[in-house]
Amino acid sequence: MRIPPYYRSPSWQRFFSGMAVGAALSWCIFLYIHGVWMEEKSALIAKQKQDITDMTNDIKIWQDDYKALNEKNLEQLTIQEIKIKITNGKKYELDLLGVYEAEEKIKDDLSLFLAKDLEYVYKSRELIKKMIENKVIPLNGKRYRVRITSMVVYTTVNIQLEVYLDE
């Protein structure tokens, strides 16, 4: 069996040459479109890389500023609140109102330290201790003094006290 000789017929020759020209033309169009797409994608990737580096630099700048502000704020912390707690009021059978009033009196004495610099208050610990321990508190017809058991100085000053009878 033999393959028929299509290459001799002009209609077949036109068909095959049209296929070859069409294939070459479509290949050129494909290469052009693919090239344009790749150029757009590579331009987009380059832009995104630039955006990422810019944003990374911005983040670094913001973090440096944030750290600097935090350090500056730590240097300038102030006392916001003073908390006083009398721990052994039950030992002397003191009522809650009397204990509360004593805590408030001491808190009023220490109110001058509110909004003061943290370093200033920390350096004044001994003064605070003397102010509190030299105070005589009258409760239920008796005179009491207090002793500091613990004092924590930060933005909130926490002081725990023990009450004892005054001689």
TrEMBL record:
InterPro entries: YtrI, YtrI_C. The chain crosses the membrane at residues 12-33. It comes from the Bacteria. Residues 80-163 form the Sporulation membrane protein YtrI C-terminal domain. Keywords: Membrane, Transmembrane, Transmembrane helix. The keyword Transmembrane applies. NCBIfam families: spor_membprot_YtrI. This is Sporulation membrane protein YtrI C-terminal domain-containing protein. It comes from Mesobacillus foraminis. The lineage of its organism: Bacteria, Bacillati, Bacillota, Bacilli, Bacillales.
